[in-house]
Amino acid sequence: MESVLIGVGDCSDVTCLCHMDSVLIGVGYCSDVTCLRHMDSVLIGVGCCSDVTCLCRMDSVLIGVGYCSDVTCLCRMDSVLIGVGYCSDVTCLCRMDSVLIRVGYCSDVTCLCRMDSDAHRSWIL
């Protein structure tokens, strides 16, 4: 698994959103408990966080975990890609297994999954 790639598609196994280091987010198996949160009252967890973090734009291409001074959202850029920015429509991020992680509503089920050699689309962190 590449530590800097996030792909959107069908997941055949259970994956999680995890901290790869202090700034990068990777998708795969996490040995420690992490989470993804909104800065507002809505909490989107992939585990438990000891502090409040958010998914934010570090610059034009990077996604970091930390405190965000501006409001950002996780959004579908098109039918396959997920980007970070202001969304004009409601979107979601969901797990393919029994646990759904929502940022809005999806008309279809998608997931954030680990990249492999067969994956062709990704959002590069």
Characterise the protein shown here.
The chain has strands spanning 5-8, 16-19, 25-28, 54-57, 63-66, 73-76, 82-85, 112-113, 123-124. The protein has 125 residues and is mainly beta. The chain has one domain. The chain is globular. Residues 1-125 have low confidence and may be disordered.
- Hey, roughly how much beta strand do the residues contain? 25-35%
What is the count of DSSP helices, taking H or I runs of 4+ residues?
0
* Overall pLDDT level: 34
Computed over alpha carbons, the radius of gyration is 13 Å
Shape type:
globular
Instruction: Name the assembly state.
Output: single chain
What is the helix content?
under 10%
Number of domains: 1
Topology as H/E string?
EEEEEEEEE
Q: Which strand order do you get reading across the main beta sheet?
A: 8-1-9
Distance between the termini: 14 Å
SS-based class:
mainly beta
Q: Poorly predicted ranges (pLDDT <50, ≥5 residues)?
A: 1-125
Total count of strands: 9
